[in-house]
TrEMBL record, chain A:
GO terms for biological process: proton transmembrane transport; sodium ion transport. Pfam families: MbhD, MbhE, Proton_antipo_M, Proton_antipo_N. It is a multi-pass membrane protein. This is Multisubunit sodium/proton antiporter, MrpA subunit. The chain crosses the membrane at residues 29-47, 77-97, 104-122, 128-149, 161-182, 202-227, 239-260, 266-287, 294-313, 319-343, 355-379, 414-435, 456-475, 506-525, 573-595, 607-625, 632-650, 656-675, 695-713, 750-768. GO terms for cellular component: plasma membrane. PANTHER family: NA(+)/H(+) ANTIPORTER SUBUNIT, NA(+)_H(+) ANTIPORTER SUBUNIT A. The keyword Ribonucleoprotein does not apply. It is found in: Cell membrane; Membrane. Its main location: membrane. Residues 60-107 form the NADH-Ubiquinone oxidoreductase (complex I) chain 5 N-terminal domain. Residues 123-404 form the NADH:quinone oxidoreductase/Mrp antiporter transmembrane domain.
TrEMBL record, chain B:
This is Multisubunit sodium/proton antiporter, MrpF subunit. The lineage of its organism: Bacteria, Bacillati, Bacillota, Bacilli, Bacillales. GO terms for cellular component: plasma membrane. It is a multi-pass membrane protein. GO terms for molecular function: sodium:proton antiporter activity. Its main location: membrane. It holds the Pfam family MrpF_PhaF. It is found in: Cell membrane. Belongs to the CPA3 antiporters (TC 2.A.63) subunit F family. The chain crosses the membrane at residues 12-33, 45-68, 74-93.
Length: 777, 104
């Protein structure tokens, strides 16, 4: 199974080589066999007596991260959709993409995506699932931005990337929490520990984070906004990723985790409300679109909302209907996208206002579109699979599990009405799609290309999908036993086995369907009259505006925030650094009770020390207030000599020697460069700035003084200097303890101080000598 | 007897050193005044030079006070450095540079 999952990725390595011959043989022909082989591999698992298969391949066993593939009914359904529709899409793309396009890149991305998607649905390991999940985001990003020279493509790619990766990262958070709580990384093992998860304090957080991942990926309200913009991708990509597979990854995730969360009442509330809201909003918005793919994008969103809502209901009938609709939606939506691609390809436009009257010109395409759109609308005809799942959906809305929660009690009675409301608009846009394109006045003069029927190769894939629509419509029970029951079992253990019939008698769902058709037809015929309603809602309200504003504001806000502290002035940085040190150290010292003042073991102060210290203090103060440059450096020299005197007094002759030399050399160096320095002027500073400087410098001085006093007052252990004094001659062979320490006991420090000096010397030399401007020569 | 003389000598020495300490400190403070007050840079340069000389004295006194020969190097070094420093400052004040470029 590992090989089946990784096969597309491995084959992708060969694709760039194959694409060199693209003018002789279309690269897609080689690629076509890959998903087809995978489809053949997985189709042999199908059967009425299917049992789940598990295969584990070690990857990082120490972290519990392994390729842990678990093929149950749900995975099998998705795997067959991915590989089956994948084959059809690749076949379709052979005719859709011209050889002048960058075919190599296209198929590499597509195969990458295929592996990622197979990995998502087969992984039982959370982190492997997450890895493949992000790979779908990345490959989807690449595919949406395939025509990267178009501004809208780049915008759409970036938008989908930001939104889905945001969700993906949230999901990772949820996964980590789950792993921490259950101590396992396997989803199936987590399902056995459902009680533990449900009793956890973090349950709302876990569920929220995972649902965020699912909602963003499956384009649920309000994260649906990336999907319409993803329509900038080539049509085969839209058909594959944005109708059949990737957008169902979120659905898959919710279905995967519903055995864990199903009994949690907030799961029902959130998923149902979001699903129903998505269904209504997107179907309402789809009617407004003028781009064929725009209509299909919103239609996808709304159908996904419907599936999501059914998963949220969590009743056995609803889960069954959701699974059924996943299959149905993949068939008719895939075919519709391909139809839209054909229309685009053969007429040169996807704008529904410029299309019309194509029925006689493109009869085969029109026939395909009839099945697709009517199935999508859920029209009660016995050969359309959309009707069955829609009827089941209506039935599910009427028989919801009772949940004792004030919010749930409010929404449960509303759900059937909302479902009907969303379905009415579904009907309207489906009719609009079909009749707007294929009937009405012919306006071919507005088209760039003279429309004609598509080549037969292009029609094969949609024909196969439409045959699927009709086949499921005519013989719904053939997929029931083989797919649906096993898939529903994986979601909801004890599934009721029921036969799907076209005719159930005069039951409420049928009346709901009839109402949808009736009111929908009425609304479709009068749509010119009520289209003003879109000026009221959404009007100015749009999630796109929120997104754009968010992206722009985050950008401007962070620029502004950075500009407040990255001023380019060293003075500001210095005050920030020192201020932080003062603030943090004071807090630490006070909170740990670190200040310690003891004055009982101090040495006596002698006159001479006092005199030198007074001189140093006066000189230091004078340095701050002097206006003469030379004066300042000479007075600093006094401070340095004063320190040398202190070394003398405190019996450190070596230090005194060094200090004197260094002080003199520094003064000389200052004098050397003073000639070249600009005149020191008294800078005009505001009193606030002066006050700030004063507070910081006094604070820092006070802090250091307090720390020094505290350090002196605190003695945790004896100093080790006795050892040096005792052993300097015995071990080091020298009477000068300081020098023995420097070169013998701690010679390594000295070595690197020598290195520092060497580096400094070399640096100065190169600074002076190496100049790019000739002027310096 | 010799011990009494020795003690007396030591007392005289200590007293002298103490007095000298005070004298040098006062002199340093006065030099510091000159150093800060200026008014011209040569004033300061001379003050710094004299501070160096005074520091030599101070170091010598400390050496006597601490009864150690280890500070003799310091005294000599101060002498050399004070000389070098003063020459450098003087040259700077005179020419604006300390090390002349080659006059080719």
């Amino acid at each position: 199974m590992l090989f089946a999952v990784l096969l597309p990725l491995l084959f992708a390595i060969l694709v760039p080589m194959l694409s060199k011959w693209k003018h002789k043989i279309h690269t897609g022909i080689f690629v076509f066999f890959i998903p087809f082989l995978i489809f053949l591999y997985f189709i042999r698992f199908v059967g009425n007596d299917f049992t789940p298969v598990r295969q584990v391949y070690n990857w990082i066993p120490s972290l519990g991260i392994n390729f842990d593939f678990y093929l149950d009914g749900l995975s099998l359904l998705f795997v067959l959709l991915i590989s089956g529709i994948g084959s059809l899409v690749v076949f379709y793309s052979i005719y859709y993409l011209h050889v002048s396009e960058r075919l190599g890149s296209f198929y590499v991305y597509l195969l990458m995506f295929m592996t990622a998607m197979l990995g998502v649905v087969l992984s039982d390991n959370l982190f492997v699932l997450y890895t493949f999940w992000e790979l779908t985001s990345i490959s989807s990003f690449l595919l949406i931005g395939y025509w990267h020279y178009r501004e809208r493509s780049r915008y759409g790619a970036q938008k989908s990337m930001l939104i889905t990766v945001f969700g993906g990262l949230s999901m990772l958070g949820g996964f980590i929490l789950l792993t921490v709580i259950t101590g396992t990384t396997s989803i199936q093992e987590m399902i056995t520990q459902t009680d533990l998860i449900l009793s956890s304090d973090y349950l709302p957080l876990i569920m929220g984070l995972i649902l965020l991942g699912a909602f963003t990926k499956s384009a649920q309200f309000p994260f649906h906004i990336w999907l319409p913009d993803a329509m900038e991708a080539p049509t085969p990509v839209s058909a594959y990723l944005h109708s059949a597979t990737m957008v169902k990854a979120g659905i898959f995730l919710v279905a995967r985790f519903s055995p864990i969360f199903a009994t949690y009442e907030w799961f029902f509330i959130i998923v149902s409300i979001v699903g129903i809201a998505t269904l209504c909003w997107a179907s309402y918005m789809a009617v407004r679109q003028t781009d064929l793919k725009g209509i299909l994008a919103f239609s996808t969103i709304s159908q996904l909302g419907m599936i999501m809502a059914m998963l949220g209901f969590g009743t056995k009938a609803a889960i069954f209907a959701a699974i059924f609709h996943i299959l149905n939606h993949a068939t008719f939506k895939g075919s519709l996208f391909m139809v839209a691609g054909i229309i685009d390809h053969e007429t040169g436009t996807r704008d529904i206002r410029r299309l019309g009257g194509l029925l006689t010109v493109m009869p085969i395409t029109a026939t395909l579109a009839v099945f697709g759109t009517f199935s999508m609308a859920g029209i009660p005809l016995p050969f359309l699979n959309g009707f069955y799942s829609k009827e089941m959906f209506f039935e599910a809305t009427l028989h919801l599990n009772e949940v004792v929660n004030p919010i749930a009690n409010v929404i449960i009675p509303l759900i059937p009405y909302l479902a009907v409301f969303g379905s009415i608009f579904t009907f309207v846009y489906s009719m609009y799609f079909f009749f707007g394109v294929f009937t009405g006045p012919k306006q071919f003069d507005k088209l760039k290309i003279k429309p004609h029927e598509a080549p037969i190769g292009m029609l094969v894939s949609p024909i196969i999908l439409v045959v699927g629509v009709v086949f499921i419509g005519l013989f719904p029970n053939s997929v029931n036993g083989t797919f649906l029951i096993h898939a529903a079992e994986a979601v909801n253990n004890a599934v009721e086995i029921k036969d799907i019939h076209f005719w159930h008698g005069w039951i409420p769902p049928l009346f709901m369907s009839l109402a949808v058709v009736g009111i929908g037809a009425l609304l479709y015929l009068t749509r010119e009259k009520w289209s003003n309603v879109y000026h009221v809602l959404p009007g100015k309200m749009s999630m796109n505006k929120v997104y754009d504003g968010l992206v722009k504001n985050v950008d401007t806000f962070s620029t502004r925030l950075t500009n407040t502290y990255m001023t380019g002035s060293l003075k500001t940085y210095m005050s920030i650094i020192l201020g932080t040190i003062i603030f943090v150290t004071f807090i630490v010292m006070i909170s740990t009770n670190g200040f310690n003042m003891e004055f009982n073991n101090l040495a006596e102060v002698t006159w001479i020390e006092l005199a030198v210290v007074v001189i140093i203090i006066i000189a230091a103060l004078a340095t701050m207030f002097t206006t003469s440059k030379l004066g300042a450096i000479l007075i600093t020299g006094v401070v340095g000599y004063g320190v040398a005197t202190l070394f003398v007094i405190y019996r450190a002759p070596d230090l005194a020697l060094t200090q004197l030399v260094i002080e003199t050399v520094s003064v000389a160096l200052f004098l050397l460069c003073f000639y070249h320095l600009p005149k020191l002027e008294k800078r005009k500073e505001s009193t606030g700035s002066k006050l700030n400087n004063m507070i910081i410098s006094i604070g820092f001085g006070a802090l250091m003084t307090l720390i020094a006093i505290s350090a002196h007052s605190t003695e945790w252990f004896d100093p080790i200097s006795d050892y040096f004094i005792e052993t300097a001659y015995k071990l080091g062979g020298g009477h000068n303890v300081v020098n023995v320490i420097l070169v013998d006991m701690r010679g390594l420090d000295t070595l690197f101080e020598i290195a520092v000096l060497g580096i400094a010397a070399l640096a100065i030399f190169s600074l002076i000598k190496l100049r790019k401007d000739k002027e310096a020569e | 007897m010799t011990e009494t003389i020795y003690k007396a000598t030591e007392a005289i020495l200590d007293g002298t050193v103490f007095i000298c300490f005070i004298a040098i400190s006062i002199s340093l403070l006065l030099l510091l005044y000159r150093m800060i007050a200026g008014p011209t840079s040569p004033d300061r340069a001379v003050a710094l030079d004299t501070i160096g000389i005074n520091l030599m004295g101070l170091a010598a006194l400390v050496a006597i006070y601490l009864v150690t020969p280890n500070l003799n190097d310091v005294i000599l070094l101060i002498a050399i450095l004070a000389f070098l420093g003063t020459v450098a400052i003087a040259k700077y004040l005179e020419k604006g540079v300390i090390i002349d470029r080659d006059m080719d």
